[in-house]
Design brief:
This protein is α+β, with helices and mostly antiparallel strands and 140 residues long. Helices cover 46% and strands 18% of the residues. The protein is built from four helices and six strands, in the order ββαααββββα. It is rod-shaped and about 95 Å long.
């Protein structure tokens, strides 16, 4: 560049340019992070509900073989133990009798902040959420 015969060397960013860049990144992060967090919760919810539905199928196979649900345990039912639902939900079988049961997926760790709360699935196919701030229809 020439300015009356002199050349001026460009040495880097000014403090103002750097601050503008930081502000732009902060605004983009403030917009993007909540959207990302919602996506992560939604994905983990889908994994938990899918796992409950798979467990229900396994419970029905258990009943078909033994004509009772008594004695069914998660350890005996879990064919695919590599589900990510275990990392974010605690799975359990509640109210187990000879003819009925309720499967539960309770959020654990940092996922406990999710608004859906505990997912439940009964032997009759009733899907609900318990202790959540969101409506069950939005979660299932």
């Amino acid at each position: 560049m020439s300015n009356n015969g002199r050349q001026r060397a460009v040495k880097g960013f000014t403090l103002v340019e750097l601050m503008i860049t930081v502000v732009v990144i902060a605004v983009l992060t403030a917009i993007a992070y909540p959207t990302y967090a919602k996506y992560v919760y939604k994905t983990r919810r889908a994994e938990a509900t899918r796992t409950l539905l798979e467990l229900r199928g396994q419970m029905e196979r258990y009943y078909a073989d033994r004509e009772t649900y008594v004695g069914a345990t998660l350890a005996a039912l879990m064919v695919d133990g590599n589900t990510t639902a275990h990392a974010y939900y605690t799975l359990s079988i509640e109210g187990l009798t000879a003819s009925s049961y309720t499967l539960q997926a309770t959020p654990a760790g940092t996922h406990a902040e999710d608004g859906c709360g505990t997912f439940t699935l009964t032997s009759t196919g009733v899907k609900k959420t318990v202790d959540g701030s969101l409506d069950s229809s939005k979660c299932w």
